[in-house]
Amino acid sequence: MDDVAAPRRASFGLSLLVALGWYTTVLAAVFVGHAGIPATPNRDCAAVFSCMTPQEELGLLVILGGPILAGLLFSTLVVTGLLARRVPSSILTGTLSALGSVVVVAVAGAVWQGLR
Description:
Elements: H1 12-35, H2 54-83, H3 90-115
Keywords: Membrane, Transmembrane, Transmembrane helix
Transmembrane segments: 12-32, 58-84, 91-112
Protein name: Vitamin K epoxide reductase domain-containing protein
């Protein structure tokens, strides 16, 4: 008679897609912003990394950003799994998990820098 409906849960897969969509949007914005910066005609190549080609910059980004991205994706999986049980909206769950994962990775990076 008085059946109480089970609480609605967000879909884990859809929430994860929303989080990955946020990461893709940020990466695309960084790429477009970097591509829009004109090259200076008189570059002084005395500074480290000042005269890199776009291919060298991409390689450096992959080498330095790979571990950060791996940690970000791992923490996104964990945070999405925790939030999908409690939040009924997949969009909200994905957004919160992306934001929470960025905070987790930033804190982990700060702790790592502090211990060095």
